[in-house]
Design a protein that fits this description.
With about 325 residues, this protein is mainly beta. The chain has four helices and 26 strands. The longest helix is centred in the C-terminal third of the chain and has 12 residues, at about 295-305. Bound molecules: manganese (II) ion (MN).
């Protein structure tokens, strides 16, 4: 159950009705995310596995983290690690994560907050649950999206944006049966707080059973719908989707999402994240934490990291794990 909810969605601004002649996008593919483990072993679903990078462009990778109910002592994060050439967007739906980077960015994000880190020319960072949550355990659910940077912006200064839950633009569908949280980009004249290098939009929608969401979507953006939980259908063709599935939609002006009338009791609504951006259409060479244009640039990124040129771990503001000597991984 997402932390950011609204008692009365009828009081929210509504997304506009699709204009006459609007083209509702069709579903091109539906894939199922395999489960894996990230960092020190927190459970993830690899949302984009098996999908051609050209269909994802400008997005590279996305992990759904959890949903998991940790026992005391169990919550896990990552150790210090580098990135170059793209942005990491971490959206915490439930729970708390701490972050620190070698460029002075960082902080605590929880319950609907988003941390938008532009790695640009290079940064080291660490992402972990806070110590008190490691001790107590608890609910954790979020996602991390990787947004590519075009060649001209791969070397920008690292940047950190702390987007609080209450800064997301809240909207309702025409039938008020869907709650939209606009985190970045513009939907129906309402703009989310995230500042992006690559033009894009990111919306978290909770669609009630039986409700229909017709989301205006820029025709020059691609359109991806990932199901965080629940069941429903997407596109004008009504392709069925459920928890952990990604739908890639074809061209058009409108993204259609419907909540199935019957939902499992543990997931009372359909929760999706809708992503779109203007494709960069450049060659991609990626390995591990680096997303570049050529293989040689990836090799240089590893060399720069090993030589300490991507930054050094700050002496101050270090989350607890670094003190245990897990640095430099
Ligand atoms: Mn990372």
């Amino acid at each position: 159950m997402p932390a950011v909810t609204v008692e009365d969605t009828t009081a929210l601004p509504r997304v506009p009705l699709p204009a006459p002649g609007t083209v509702r996008r069709r579903t091109r593919s539906v894939t199922t995310a395999p489960s894996g483990f990230e960092g020190e072993g927190f459970p993830v679903r690899r949302a984009f596995a098996g999908v051609d990078l050209r269909d994802l462009d400008p997005f590279i990778h996305m992990d759904q983290m959890g949903e998991v109910e940790y026992a005391p002592g169990e919550p896990k994060g990552t150790s210090w690690h580098p990135h170059r050439g793209f942005e990491t967007v971490t959206y915490i739906i439930d729970g708390t994560f701490e972050h620190a980077d070698s460029h002075g960015g960082g902080g605590t994000i929880s319950n609907g907050d988003t941390q938008w880190m532009t790695a640009g020319g290079g940064v080291l960072h660490i992402e972990r649950p806070p110590e008190h949550l490691v001790v107590s355990g608890g609910l954790f659910h979020g996602l991390q999206l990787w947004v590519n940077l075009p060649r001209a912006q791969k070397w920008v200064e690292p940047r950190y944006q702390d987007l609080r839950a209450n800064s997301a633009a809240l909207l309702a569908s025409q039938d008020a049966g869907a709650l939209l949280r606009v985190i970045a980009g513009e939907v129906g004249g309402h703009t989310g707080p995230g500042s992006t290098y690559t033009p894009m939009a990111m919306v978290h929608a909770t669609v009630s059973p039986g409700a229909t969401l017709d989301l205006p979507w820029r025709p020059d953006f691609n359109a991806l719908v990932y199901v965080l939980s629940g069941a429903g259908s997407v596109g004008i063709d009504g392709a069925p989707v459920r928890t952990g599935q990604l739908a890639v939609l074809g061209p058009g002006d409108t993204v259609t999402v419907r909540g199935a009338v019957h939902q499992e009791s543990r997931t009372p609504a359909l929760d999706v994240v809708v992503l779109g951006g203007r494709p960069i259409r450049e060659p991609i060479a990626m390995y591990g934490p680096f997303v570049m244009n050529t293989r040689q640039e990836v090799v240089e990124a590893f060399e720069d990291f090993q030589a300490g040129r991507l930054g050094s771990i700050p002496a101050q503001r270090v989350p607890h794990a670094a003190v245990r000597g897990e640095s430099g991984q």
